[in-house]
Amino acid sequence: MFCSSANYITLLFAHFFMRGKFLLLDGLDGIGKGVYLDAMKEQAAKDGKKILDLHDYWKEHGTHPSITDLDGYDLILSSEPTYVGWGVKIRKELIKADKEYPATEIAEAYAEDRKELYGQVIIPALEAGIDIIQSRAVTTSLIYQPIDAARKGEALDWDAVAALDGNAFCLRKEVLPDLIVIPTVSDVNEVIKRLAAREKKDDATFETYEFQLEVKAGFESDQFKKFFADRGVRVVYADAETSIEHSRKEAVRLYKEL
Question: Residue 231 and residue 237: Cα distance in Å, rounded?
């Protein structure tokens, strides 16, 4: 049976307003994305939200949750690369500082990892009206992978990264985040100090002053701002060097605003 025009429009509006909100955190390594994520998680819990933390789920099950596993949740916390499938290979092998894989291979692995994450979790959750707060996404690849490629003498620019199958899948308008939050510092040396002070070392090839200096320029570039503004995505740059408490307050403010 076909819907009348009026009913069809009503269904479209209902679907639009039922979509979950999607807040994305990104930026330099060591910038404090975890501080923002934790503060938002705590506020959501205070608000009575039922939260599915994918990091806990991945650790317990070694796989992504099924659609039925998402039932009853109000908010999902996520990050990239994941801790299953391609994500494990990326973390344990491809981006280790003592390894030297082609930038194109690394970019393709990230794209496949996020396509699986989006296809199995992010998109079904948003369509079910579940909110998402995620650390890193295709935004990271658009900045990191061209820098990595240039340093390795490979031809892999912004457009080529965006065109990779998994990335193009996640750059469709209907699955883009509503808000991108980029915590920032004025001096990249600050994040290098934070990385050195961490108890848990990622030992990633990207965690050098020179690389992060280029990353900072990329995230703050007109190209980055315009790319997402043209797609209706709001980008906010937040002070991440005043204090941890300041970052936590800013995180809660942005969470409540969205």
Answer: 18
User: What does the pLDDT look like over 16-48, one tens digit per residue?
Assistant: 558 999 999 999 999 999 999 999 999 999 999
User: What are the backbone angles phi and psi of residue 233, rounded to the nearest 5°?
Assistant: -100, 130
Q: Which strands sit side by side in the sheet containing 234-239, from one edge to the other?
A: 51-53, 75-79, 131-135, 22-25, 179-184, 234-239
Q: What CATH class has 29-257?
A: alpha beta
Domain boundaries, the chain: 29-257
In tens, the pLDDT along 114-130 reads 999 999 999 999 999 99
Instruction: Report the predicted TM-score, pTM, of the whole model to 2 decimal places.
Output: 0.89
3-class SS string, the chain: CCCCHHHHHHHHHHHHHHCCCEEEECCCCCCCHHHHHHHHHHHHHHCCCCEEEHHHHHHHHCCCCCCHHHCCCCEEEEECCCCCCHHHHHHHHHCECCCCCCHHHHHHHHHHHHHHHHHHHHHHHHHCCCEEEEECCHHHHHHHHHHHHHHCCCCCCHHHHHHCHHHHHHCCHHHCCCEEEEEECCCCHHHHHHHHHCCCCCCECCCCHHHHHHHHHHHCCHHHHHHHHCCCCEEEEEECCCCHHHHHHHHHHHHHHC
